[in-house]
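[Discussion] Sanity-checking designs against the backbone

I'm trying to build intuition for which residues belong where. Below is a structure token string of 263 positions. I'd appreciate it if someone posts a full sequence so I can compare it with mine line by line.
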């Protein structure tokens, strides 16, 4: 039978529910090549079997394996098969196509897939992009407490404690787990979509500004003329001293003269 790499890989993936890493596949085909070569050598020494009938397959390289797996993955999508081939953090794996997942779940009697609240999703996004990150940094970015959301993520094993920061008080730092990669369907953190809003440099700059005192907005900032403060005197003006007793006496005298003339 002619050796078919794609069908062989498909059979291997169907034979196990666990992911198969590229390293394990390379070792497997190397072992197969060694055993086939040993069988050919034994056939040469045997008088009962013609050595020409024993075909030794060539050693399969990692590039050939990756090319065949890519072809299998594309074929499953194009032909709309009942399964998909995905590459996770631990290797390649055959999974049920999304449109049939609900029926498989009912057959196995499993609960519905977990759903995260908006608060948990926001917190998980901050951890994914900023890790390792402390609770205080998460709360500074979100502007609210993250206790409930963080505890939920820890309970679901989507995040875990990675250590302590070299800061006063040695606060705990958090990062994502391999289960997070499986949950999001990516192989590594580098595959996270780039964000122009949640980049580390922009967040660092924003957090530095939050530690600075709030700058007051002056009249000039909004286009108004500057008004002098109560304790400031105009440089080009001087105030004359007024004798209020004399002023009041003169005012009273003027009022009396006016009353006399009216009479």
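Best answer:
Here's mine. Compare freely.
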């Amino acid at each position: 039978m002619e050796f078919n790499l794609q069908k062989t890989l498909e059979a291997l993936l169907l034979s196990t529910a666990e992911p198969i890493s590229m390293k394990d596949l390379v070792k497997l085909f190397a072992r197969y090549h060694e055993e086939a070569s040993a069988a050919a050598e034994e056939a040469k020494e045997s008088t009962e079997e013609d050595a020409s009938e024993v075909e030794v397959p060539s050693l399969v390289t990692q590039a050939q394996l990756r090319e065949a797996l890519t072809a299998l993955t594309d074929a499953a999508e194009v032909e709309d098969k009942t399964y998909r081939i995905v590459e996770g953090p631990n290797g390649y794996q055959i999974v049920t196509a999304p449109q049939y997942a609900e029926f498989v779940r009912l057959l196995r009697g499993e609960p519905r897939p977990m759903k995260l609240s908006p608060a948990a999703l926001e917190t998980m996004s901050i951890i994914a992009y900023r890790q390792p990150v402390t609770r205080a940094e998460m709360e500074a970015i979100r502007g609210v407490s993250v206790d409930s959301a963080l505890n939920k993520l820890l309970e679901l094993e989507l995040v875990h404690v990675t250590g302590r920061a070299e800061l006063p008080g040695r606060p705990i730092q958090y990062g994502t787990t391999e289960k997070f990669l499986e949950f999001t369907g990516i192989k590594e953190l580098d595959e996270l979509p780039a964000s122009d809003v949640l980049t580390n440099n922009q967040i660092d700059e924003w957090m530095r500004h939050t530690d600075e005192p709030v700058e007051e907005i002056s009249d000039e900032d909004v286009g108004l003329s500057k008004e002098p403060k109560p304790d400031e005197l105009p440089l080009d003006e001087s105030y004359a001293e007024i004798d209020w007793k004399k002023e009041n006496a003169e005012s009273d005298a003027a009022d009396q003269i006016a009353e006399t003339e009216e009479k």
